[in-house]
UniProtKB/TrEMBL annotation:
The chain crosses the membrane at residues 12-35. InterPro entries: Glyco_trans_34 (IPR008630), Nucleotide-diphossugar_trans (IPR029044). Gene3D superfamilies: Spore Coat Polysaccharide Biosynthesis Protein SpsA, Chain A. It comes from the Eukaryota. It comes from Glycine soja (Wild soybean). Belongs to the glycosyltransferase 34 family. PANTHER family: ALPHA-6-GALACTOSYLTRANSFERASE, XYLOGLUCAN 6-XYLOSYLTRANSFERASE 5-RELATED-RELATED. Its main location: Golgi. It is found in: Golgi apparatus membrane. This is Galactomannan galactosyltransferase 1. Keywords: Coiled coil, Glycoprotein, Glycosyltransferase, Golgi apparatus, Membrane, Signal-anchor, Transferase, Transmembrane, Transmembrane helix. Residues 316-343 form a coiled coil.
């Protein structure tokens, strides 16, 4: 305080008017410096301050405003379609993020974009549209709980890329439209998130660009086309992925070699029944035969990245009972909380899952073969098995959401909902 007060005293060398002028100028400079520190943060090397500086730097351009600098979007050669290759995508993404610092990835799991969709026409099955709505609602719930963006597409972006091939033009366009996304996560319309708390262990995939549920020995050694499932996969938004999708799609109906690829895949994978070239068998071929891609592909089998519904759909009651047992022992898991912090309770629960063993909730239940939209289910099982299993899965997942709101279904095949007691499941 003494130093500041001494500056206010008159000097025999400087007139009083100059002192007032200099004081005002100094005050203005201090004010401008203070304001600029909120706009252009001072660089620091302290890791504890980095999150603060990141937040301040984001104020340069609001997230809903584009930067004035020219980016790849201003290049007329930039294409969203699969018939024109993208070059130098990693560098283009990097430059775009430099111009938009508020979108810079700050954590390993903060930039996931979930993509899903269905056909552009109404369902032939009378309850198909209702089921698709519930399937989509389930994905929206999961994304809201984990702060992920989601895209639902029902437009055919390439006239020849229909059926199971239709997703690749959508994923390609999503990558270009979302350079801020580190991962594009495709989830089939008939797949249900049945563990709403579970978060992807992205650190496991830090050296990979594509994650698919599957088994190495079934794909590489047994040459089985069912050794993996291409209905749910995680793909890094990078040049490798764009190049890989170009090769992958070249085995599909947009290629003049489509029929030849069907013959090649059927002769390579003896258990393949259909003669057409499908995306799942094509992926298995690229892993087992075209091995230059395999090092960047992770076949996940340690948890249900996607699980076949016939294996797990009738276990939900048992899973719920085992989880209730854990919660009766751990009071913290029974605590009521806001939905925004639900993810932290999922992390807390992970510490106690060893007590549950094989009854851990399946992450994603995939209703492969049920065809909820057209109703042409696989004849290997009864249609009612499909519909009842879908109802159980959707209600099982919805219970995990409703519970935060104070409600749940006691019967997974009954739409009746009732309030839950304060200390549930300790009090019934």
């Amino acid at each position: 305080m003494a130093k500041f007060s001494s500056r206010k005293k008159s000097s025999i060398w400087v007139p009083n008017g100059c002192i007032f002028f200099l004081g005002g100028a100094l005050t203005t400079l201090l004010l401008l410096w203070g304001l600029s520190s909120f706009i252009i943060p001072i660089p620091n090397s302290d890791p504890e301050l980095n999150p603060v500086s990141t937040k301040l730097s984001s104020l340069q351009f609001p997230t809903n405003t584009d930067a004035p600098e020219t980016t790849f979007y201003d290049d007329p050669e930039t294409s969203y379609t699969m018939d024109k290759p993208m070059h130098n995508w990693d560098e283009k993404r990097k430059q775009w993020l430099l111009h938009h610092p508020s979108f810079t990835v700050t954590t390993h799991d903060s930039k996931i974009l979930v993509v899903t969709g269905s056909q552009p026409k109404r369902c032939h099955n009378p309850i198909g549209d209702h089921l698709l709505l519930r399937f989509f609602k389930n994905k929206v719930d999961y994304c809201r709980l984990h702060n992920y963006d989601i895209i639902y597409n029902n437009a055919l972006l390439h006239p020849k890329m229909g059926s199971y091939w239709a997703k690749y033009p959508v994923i390609r366009a999503a990558m270009v439209a979302h350079p801020e996304a580190e991962w594009i996560w495709w989830v089939d319309s008939d797949a249900v998130f049945t563990d709403m708390e579970f978060t992807l262990p992205l650190n496991r995939y830090k050296d990979h660009n594509l994650v698919v549920h599957g088994w190495e020995n079934l794909v590489r050694e047994n040459r089985s086309w069912t050794g993996l499932n291409a209905g749910v996969f995680l793909m890094r938004n990078c040049q490798w992925s764009l190049d890989f999708m170009d090769v992958w799609a070249s085995m599909g109906p947009m290629s003049p070699e489509y029929e030849k690829w069907g013959e090649t895949l059927k002769s390579t994978f003896k258990d393949k029944v259909l003669p057409d070239s499908d995306d799942q068998t094509a992926l298995a071929y690229l892993i087992a035969v075209e091995k230059k891609w395999a090092d960047k592909i992770f076949l996940e089998s340690e948890y249900y990245f996607q699980g076949y519904w016939l294996e797990i759909s009738k276990t939900y009651y048992n899973v719920s009972e085992r989880y209730d047992e854990v919660e009766r022992k751990v009071k913290g898991l029974r605590r009521r909380h806001a939905e925004k912090v639900s993810e932290s309770y999922g992390l807390m629960r992970e510490e106690y899952l060893n007590d549950v063993g094989e009854w851990k909730r399946p992450f994603i239940t995939h209703f492969t073969g049920c065809q909820p939209c057209n109703g042409h289910h696989n004849p290997a099982y009864d249609a009612m098995d499909c519909w009842n299993s879908m109802e159980r899965a959707l209600n099982f997942a919805d219970n995990q959401v409703l519970r935060v709101y104070g409600y749940m279904r006691k019967d997974l095949l009954n739409k009746a909902i009732s309030p839950i007691p304060f200390d549930y499941p300790n009090v019934v």
